[in-house]
Design brief:
The complex is a heterodimer of chains A (295) and B (449).
Chain A lengths: L10 H29 L2 E2 L8 E2 L3 H8 L1 H33 L5 H7 L2 H4 L2 H12 L7 H6 L10 H29 L3 H9 L4 H30 L2 H7 L11 H11 L3 H26 L7
Antiparallel strand pairs in A: 1-2
Chain B lengths: L1 H27 L2 E7 L3 H17 L3 E7 L3 H13 L6 E5 L3 H7 L2 E2 L1 H7 L11 H7 L9 E6 L1 E6 H5 L10 H13 L4 E5 L3 H11 L6 H4 L14 H14 L3 E3 L8 H6 L3 E7 L3 H7 L6 E4 L15 E8 L4 H14 L2 H10 L7 H9 L12 H7 L16 H16 L5 H22 L7
Parallel strand pairs in B: 1-2, 1-3, 7-8, 7-9
Antiparallel strand pairs in B: 3-11, 4-11, 5-11, 6-9, 6-10
Classes of the chains: A mainly alpha (295), B alpha/beta (449).
């Protein structure tokens, strides 16, 4: 950092300029989050009216429920699987495009598209493709009966939502990886090539270490995204079933809060989920970032 | 949290826009009121059509009808809008939402409303089974019955002919024999089932006059406890599980690719059970030439058949609107309860005529003789089979949608072999009871009317 600092002489103008942003963040984040925090300690009748202060009761109900821990476990499995698949494939595609394999201009342009598809639309498409009776995949069941049935097999259902979520996140990861790869000075790679390092060797020893900041950033984004944005996919493809096999935390919040009209229980779960995401991000910054070198 | 903000925001934005336009409309002379409905797809179009026809039928009032994209959304959005004081005058709420609305303090109960606004409604005209579902424990109706249905058994006549039978099974014992014959005759899917508790559990218990919960299925108080895990249901679901393992029944859901109705309509499954509202859907989507009928739900031998439960939705009037809006709403509610309009609904949907006079007029006019509608009277026979008992007048349990969801998940666990049927029912009842106790605590100080 250079010693020169740019300062605003006109504080009021600065305040005025950031005010709309602050206002938006307050209205759409801090206010609802504060409200949820308050609800989490009360019992809130759906239509309003006299609410009761119940202290930690909602949190105790949540933590004592074995099915809540089931949903935490499912969410972690989902987040880890879909993040690693999405990042792995995204990286692979980015490496291909970066190596300017035939047709890379087209791919560079097209790979981003899946991310623009809304989660419920992704869910609908995957439900059709993977439906055991009628989908494209139903051919498998003709050769191996009952091999694939996400409607009855929890393991298959988990695969289905992991694949659907990974598919839409690959595109996002691809763009960041490609940008990261292209900012690596060509001279480094050329020097490696002149020293006799093959393609794979150069990827492993030059490109990947230099991509570390991107990888770190994407891990956080992917994990967070799969915790909070998986709702659309689960809602359309599996509805949390079969037998709660895909009852992810965010989906459970929805079904308890909106279907069950138990706003207080849903609020308590939201607070727990928020805490978990904050904790994960903190952990990653604290321990993983140490291993990342930005230069 | 994100989705809640979106829904609330959307509801508030929508209400603000319509609230504004309601104000401007008064200047133009027609008194407007807002009406939110939950049905979607073809049935949603029928709802919109009903509004349009009301607006064309007279010049004083105008119904502003807004589809909410599903029954559950209609309830969620109404709650959000009510908290923001931006709610509609009338809202269509499904059977399972009845308790929430009765206890909300946010509604203008139907009997009082009809009296205050001099409505012409004759409460005794409604079929008892329809009326009792939406009435308080003292028999006062708090919402206006609207689109109503009941569960029936759909059966494929051609498939039955292949096993030399020409009538539907009246008992589960006979149905089991039929399913075995169908299987032996080479039918891959004798009967389609899913995990929807409405027809497979709630209606099953009603026609066998078995309780789903203590305290008269919850009508007598919020301290009711679920009791469906003790008794006939367990025996029956054990039979179902056995039939499932033997390949006599198959699970058909949107996740497997075809729903019950789709699997029946394309001829791949020979029998299923579903709402009479799907009668029109099957007729419109069936394989050309397929011959099929509907029959009442089967009853186990040794049990007396009782009336089945009404399904569908009713119309609730909300508190806090202007006198003008209420007058317009009363005109609308009066209009849809006229015999002509009660008869219109069954001609464009599979729903039943909800009043006895309308049903008699339709029968006399030969409506049920027409091939397209033949069999639809079955649901009325089923709905009115006996006068409602404490077990068959309805279900009045708090957060019932959550209880349904618990039962559904446990049934999935049982049918995928993770636990026994009895264990699944016990777990569902014990989790359902926790939900009821939380509901009771949340509603402390309020009593079911």
């Amino acid at each position: 950092m250079s010693g020169k600092r740019v300062t605003f002489k006109n504080t009021w103008l600065a305040v005025l300029l950031i005010a709309p942003q602050i206002f938006l963040i307050f209205t759409f984040f801090y206010w609802p989050a504060g409200e949820a925090l308050y609800w989490a300690f009360t019992l809130e009748p759906p239509f309003g009216g006299e609410m009761q202060w119940v202290g930690w009761q909602n949190f105790i109900t949540v933590f004592e429920d074995p099915l809540y821990w089931n949903s935490v476990r499912r969410s972690l499995i989902f987040a880890l699987c879909s993040a690693s698949i999405a990042m792995g494939i995204g990286l692979l595609l980015a490496l291909f495009v970066d190596r300017e394999l035939p047709g890379y201009r087209g791919y560079r342009f097209m790979y981003f598209w899946p991310y623009a598809v809304a989660a419920p639309a992704v869910g609908l498409a995957f439900r059709f493709i993977f439906a055991p009776d009628a989908g494209f995949i139903s051919a498998i069941n003709q050769w191996f009966p009952d091999l694939w049935n996400p409607a009855l097999d929890g393991f298959d259902a988990m695969i289905l939502i992991v694949v659907a979520n990974a598919w839409s996140m690959v595109a996002y990861n691809f763009i960041f990886f490609l940008a990261g790869l292209q900012s690596i000075p060509r001279s480094l790679i050329e020097a490696g090539a002149m020293d006799g390092a093959g393609v794979l060797r150069r990827m492993r020893d030059i490109q990947l270490p230099l991509l570390a900041p991107t990888v770190f950033f994407l891990i956080i984004i992917n994990i967070t995204d799969s915790f909070v944005n998986s709702f659309g996919i689960v809602d359309i493809t599996t509805g949390g079933g079969p037998a709660r096999a895909t009852d992810l935390m965010v989906f459970k919040i929805y079904s308890d809060g909106f279907k069950g009209k138990d706003y207080s229980l849903a609020a308590a779960q939201s607070i727990v989920l928020m805490g978990l995401v904050v904790l994960l991000t903190f952990f990653q910054f604290r321990y993983v970032e140490r291993r990342v070198h930005y230069n | 949290m994100l989705s809640r903000r979106l829904i609330m925001g959307a509801a508030i934005a929508a209400s603000a826009i319509f609230g504004l336009s309601a104000a401007t409309a008064q200047a133009q002379g027609r008194q407007r009121f807002e009406y939110w409905y939950g049905l979607t797809g073809q049935l949603g179009e029928v709802m919109a059509d009903h509004c349009r026809r009301f607006n064309e039928s007279q010049t004083r009032y105008e119904a502003v009808c807004v589809g909410q994209g599903g029954y559950d959304r209609a309830e969620q959005n109404t709650i959000a809008a009510y908290r923001a004081r931006q709610h509609p005058t009338i809202v269509q709420i499904y059977d399972a939402g009845t308790v929430n609305f009765m206890l909300s303090g946010a509604t203008y109960n139907a009997v009082t409303f009809a009296r205050d606004f001099n409505m012409r409604i004759n409460w005794a005209d409604y079929f008892p089974g329809v009326a009792s579902y939406y009435a308080t424990s003292r028999g006062e109706m708090w919402s206006f019955p609207y689109n109503s249905s009941s569960a029936v058994m759909y059966w494929n006549r051609q498939a039955y002919r292949s096993i030399n039978r020409n009538e539907a099974a009246g008992s589960w014992e006979q149905l089991e024999r039929d399913l075995r014959s169908l299987k032996a005759a080479g039918h891959a899917c004798p009967m389609a089932i899913d995990f929807d508790t409405w027809q497979w559990v709630e209606q099953f218990l009603a026609v066998h006059n078995q309780p789903i919960a203590t305290r008269d299925n919850g009508y007598a108080g919020l301290n009711a406890e679920l009791s469906f895990n003790k008794g006939l249901l367990s025996t029956h679901l054990n039979n179902m599980k056995r039939w499932f393992d033997e390949g006599l029944v198959r699970i058909q859901t949107a996740q497997t690719g075809k729903t019950l109705v789709q699997a029946f309509a394309d001829g791949s499954c020979a029998v299923t059970m579903s709402s009479i509202a799907n009668h029109g859907v099957v007729g419109a989507t069936q394989t050309p030439g397929m011959e099929w009928s509907v029959a009442m739900l089967p009853v186990y031998e040794g049990y007396t058949r009782h009336n089945s439960l009404v399904g569908g939705a009713s119309l609730w009037v909300m508190q806090g609107k202007s006198r003008g809006e209420y007058e317009a709403a009363a005109a609308f509610l009066d209009w849809i309860a006229t015999p002509a309009e009660v008869q219109w609904m069954p001609t464009v949907t599979g729903y039943i005529p909800i009043t006895t006079p309308a049903f008699q007029q339709m029968t006399a006019a030969g409506f049920y003789q027409q091939p397209r509608f033949a069999g639809r009277e079955t649901s009325i026979t089923s709905l009115t089979f006996t006068p409602p008992t404490n077990n068959t007048r309805g279900i009045r349990l708090g957060n019932f949608t959550s209880i349904r969801a618990e039962l559904q998940s446990e049934l999935q666990a049982a049918f995928t072999g993770q636990k026994s049927v009895q264990q699944a029912l016990d777990d569902a009842a014990s989790r359902g009871n926790q939900i009821l106790r939380r509901f009771e605590q949340t509603m402390r100080g309020r009593e079911l009317p």
